[in-house]
Protein 1
Amino acid sequence: MTENKMIFVGEKETFIARVLIKKVQDAGIDCSFVPNRIDLINDYLEQVSLLTLFMDEGERPDEKLLHFLTDSLDEKGLKIILVGERADVQYTLDRLPGDLIFKTFSRPVDNTKFANSISDYFLKANAGEFKKSILIVDDDPQYLTMVREWLKGSYKVSMANSGLQAIKWLGKNKVDLILLDHEMPVTSGPQVLEMLRSDSDTSSIPVMFLTGKGDKQSVMEVVALKPEGYFLKGIQKDELLEKLEEFFIMHKKV
């Protein structure tokens, strides 16, 4: 993905489309027009993090394109902006998952607001606001730092050096996944998981154990609590990233 680069997709490059593209380019963002053909759009998706779908009056994307956008944008962690007549925007909005939509604009479009929204998107994207968030809980500061370095390019990463610090942090913050050590002083990993499960505010947060405890008794104790996974600290960076990616794909919002 290239920072501050987007594509503007439409049936044809109309005068209005050119005006909007120029406004975005003037804001310092690399923006190219791409006809709304799946093969052409697909060629750009590895290079961008944002797509604007422009619908001229009465134009609506067909089901094949909508399915492609749903699968591809979700897989690559991209967002989309919808521009068109109110009815056409609503039609498309009803057929795409809500978490893929960044903004919608009904015509006539305020060009300045449109460009400002694009700039706002890239400010947030570059700050990591659209990444999945992971909390790592471990009393080993060196291991905490190493795993954070492994994950920070793909995820928004926070750290807690004890179970109680994690519980306190979760009282004020949201997270998509917790990576939890087993053996920690005062409050062990299994105890932390039981505390999380007993609180309605945290009971639905997915938890994976990332621990050095590999003996049968420890594993069975944790498996009984039904975490999302149990990985030993000998796991390598690439394997951990692969397991996390698989998890988020399997648990994506429908």
Protein 2
Amino acid sequence: MYRFICIVTVGLVLQLLVSGCNADGGDEQNEIATPKIEHISKTDSVAYGHGTGKTCRVEAIINADYPVYYGNDSLTRKLQRVYIKDVLGVFQDSISVDDAFTEASDMLLRQFGESEDEIMYGVVPNVQILNYKATIDVSVFRNSGGVLTFCKHEVVNKDGEATVDMHHYINFDLSAMRKIEIFDLFEEAALQDVSQLLKEKLLKQLNVDDEDALTGLGYFNLDNITANDNFYFDENGVTWNYVTYEIACYSVGETQITLDYDALAGYITPKSVLYNR
């Protein structure tokens, strides 16, 4: 087994919006104290040997916008902690930036490891050993009205062919310095109604009449069309993103559904950050 680790800081990011994660950055008149962002790139790789003498190789790549300063030292530490936990998925207190990115890339590698199918392939002569490349791109999607939104784009290639391609949106309330959850937008009792609005909107945008028609288009898990935490909001309303395989087959890809604020007005909790939209 071998491992190669490198980390490079390449300076202040002015426009780092990956494919599928593009936004206008918000209305300048509504901008509140913009965090200073730097771009961090990290690559890890590991190789697993097998009895045939062949090797399974895994490469993990993280390219991420990272908040290096916001307001003062105390606010900076708070923002970095929630970023490390909610964007990188590293649940360790008092971890350094370098160590957080190392742990995040290690977690990518550990998703594969010496899995059962790789071991099986490894002991069968003349069978190609799999090569994986897992990439995470994190970009600032929007910063407006005291809300900072990141887009996390994850891609996994298996022998050069993409098997996973999905986007997650993570919103931070800069005044409370925490991730915005769905219950920060709507009361729990309203979520069923909001989910029904999402199904009705999907029918309308696909120009079909009922859920049977959706099934015919490849939407196999309609129960997952719910008001979940993978959302962002802008001047148009709240947009939910459903990743590949979440509600539909791979050929359909990701699905986005936007509900405008007029449609949501009756369901917004009195303390919702949406009142600032």
